[in-house]
Amino acid sequence: MSFSSEVKAEICKSAVSKKCCAVSESYGVLLFCNSFSGNGIRIITSNSDFAARLGPLFKRAFGLGFDTLPPSGSAGKKSFVINDPKKLEKIFNTYGYTFGATLSHHVNLSVMEDDCCKLSFIRGAFLAGGSVTDPEKRYHLELTTSHYSVSRETLAILSDMGFSAKEAQRSGNRLIYFKQADSIADFLTALG
Asked: What's the distance, CA 170 to chain centroid?
């Protein structure tokens, strides 16, 4: 198991007790996952702890389940899909989007009014689109999204929370990253 997988496994141990935090964490997952559009949602992960968290998380946030789940006991990458229009509409409405309209990927800050919800959003973003290197090799933590506005707005949320991350672009994706050991440790501690 990679160091990044071990970190995500540890983060996944934290319970999602409040519905508002489940909604925020799911939002982070959706904005940093493989596909979030009016045509459907696709979350692909090889992390079994994150995979085990997704079902209960979406049930708590929206009261619904995935349309397609990975086969039980499957190894490797696991795919979670929602393509039922009624489920998609419910998710879109939760975040203030109009279902059927073109989805402009932005962070709706009204979803995260409390600090616990902002932290939950960042947790979801890291679980879906983050990685961290083994500190014995080098110090690097990053969040990756293909959406420019989501990257900029997440960077602003992190700044408001007292984190000083940097931004870059790689292969058409936007990166938010930390290179300082203390910053990475503080970030991971905050996530649980």
From this structure: 19
Per the listing, tokens 């300082």 go with: 180
**CB-based burial of residue 182 (10 Å sphere; 0-12 exposed, 13-18 middle, 19+ buried)?**
exposed
CB crowding 107-136: b at 16 or more within 10 Å, else e: beeebbeeeebbbbbbbbbbbbbbbbeeee
pLDDT tens string 46-91: 999 999 999 999 999 999 999 988 887 777 899 999 999 999 999 9
- Among 101, 85, 87, 112, residue whose Cα is nearest residue 28: 112
pLDDT of amino acid 102: 65
Quick check: 140 and 134 in contact, CB under 8 A? no
Measured in whole angstroms, the distance separating CA 144 from the mean position of its chain's CA atoms is: 10
